[in-house]
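Sequence, please.
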């Protein structure tokens, strides 16, 4: 089926770039200093550009009416994911808890989900996916980033003062500022000057290449043995099986339309996003653990995603 071949092609591209990153690290072409530079380049330029670019979609009253169900569903699901983060990962120390929490609210739906849902459901599937991803992108760069600030909050003296400092640090994060800019562009439908829009698009297009190279570099610098860590397996079960199953049952119980249900279930079963590893590397969480989760969930999604596509 063409939609599965598209997904396999994207997965193959990601794995190839990952392998190149590992190779460059083993050959000491990407050093520890180079990893730090790549991390800052992604967080302060490429990811903000990608975030702004993702909001540059047509959005008006008619589109809102036709996509209202999927938008409401996406908001409800983000709340549900927040509950999972609070209930399932509370016993973990910061280094792994932040990774599992962020990896739950933020999947790889942006890279893999859009072409897959377009192949499955056509142009309307792509439109629904674009709208579905709006709440995820807002949450991943607001509450999601705050998960990596938990350690700062715990270590800082003073109650309100430390929380204000962490809140200020979170709100001034370049990727969160990019959400505000992107939302303004989407709601006002403001058109950027041609040269600026093209520069933004070109920078945004670097995202997958640079992200996967960096993740490969992190993997190449870490001891990933054993890959089948118990916590990695637990995360994959939650991300790839539990979440899409709950979404499917909930949508059927609420009599959500078949198309919206199909898009929501497929996107709920996407693997961990590469951004998780990048943020873990930047903010002192367990980046090796994040790399394991990203790699294993991506490989397993080659099996689980077609199954969910058949179910819906």
């Amino acid at each position: 089926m063409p939609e599965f071949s598209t997904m396999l092609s994207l997965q193959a591209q990601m794995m190839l770039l990952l392998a190149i990153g590992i190779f460059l690290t083993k050959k000491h072409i990407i050093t520890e200093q180079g990893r730090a530079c790549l991390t800052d380049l992604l967080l302060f330029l490429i990811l903000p550009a990608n975030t702004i670019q993702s909001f540059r979609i047509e959005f008006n009253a008619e589109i809102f009416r036709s996509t209202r169900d999927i938008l409401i569903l996406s908001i409800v699901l983000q709340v549900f994911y927040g509950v999972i983060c609070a209930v399932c990962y509370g016993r973990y120390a910061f280094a792994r808890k932040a990774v599992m929490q962020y990896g739950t609210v933020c999947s790889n739906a942006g890279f893999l989900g859009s072409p897959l849902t377009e192949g499955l459901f056509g142009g309307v599937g792509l439109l629904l996916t674009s709208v579905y991803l709006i709440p995820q992108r807002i949450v991943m760069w607001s509450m999601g980033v705050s998960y990596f600030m938990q350690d700062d909050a715990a270590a800082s003296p003073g109650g309100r003062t430390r929380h204000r400092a962490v809140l200020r640090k979170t709100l001034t994060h370049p990727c969160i500022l990019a959400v505000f800019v992107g939302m303004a562009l989407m709601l006002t439908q403001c058109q950027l000057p041609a040269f600026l829009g093209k520069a933004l698009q070109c920078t945004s297009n670097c995202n997958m290449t640079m992200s996967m190279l960096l993740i490969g570099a992190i993997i190449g610098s870490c001891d990933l043995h054993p890959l089948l860590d118990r916590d990695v397996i637990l995360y994959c079960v939650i991300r790839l099986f539990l979440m899409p199953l709950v979404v499917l049952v909930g949508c059927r119980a609420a009599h959500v339309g078949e198309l919206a249900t199909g898009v929501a279930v497929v996107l709920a079963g996407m693997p961990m996003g590469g951004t998780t590893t990048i943020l873990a590397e930047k903010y002192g969480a367990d980046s090796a653990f994040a790399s394991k989760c990203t790699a294993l969930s991506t490989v397993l999604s080659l099996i689980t995603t077609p199954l969910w596509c058949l179910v819906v």
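Residues 2-311 form a domain with the Na+/H+ antiporter like fold fold (CATH 1.20.1530.20).
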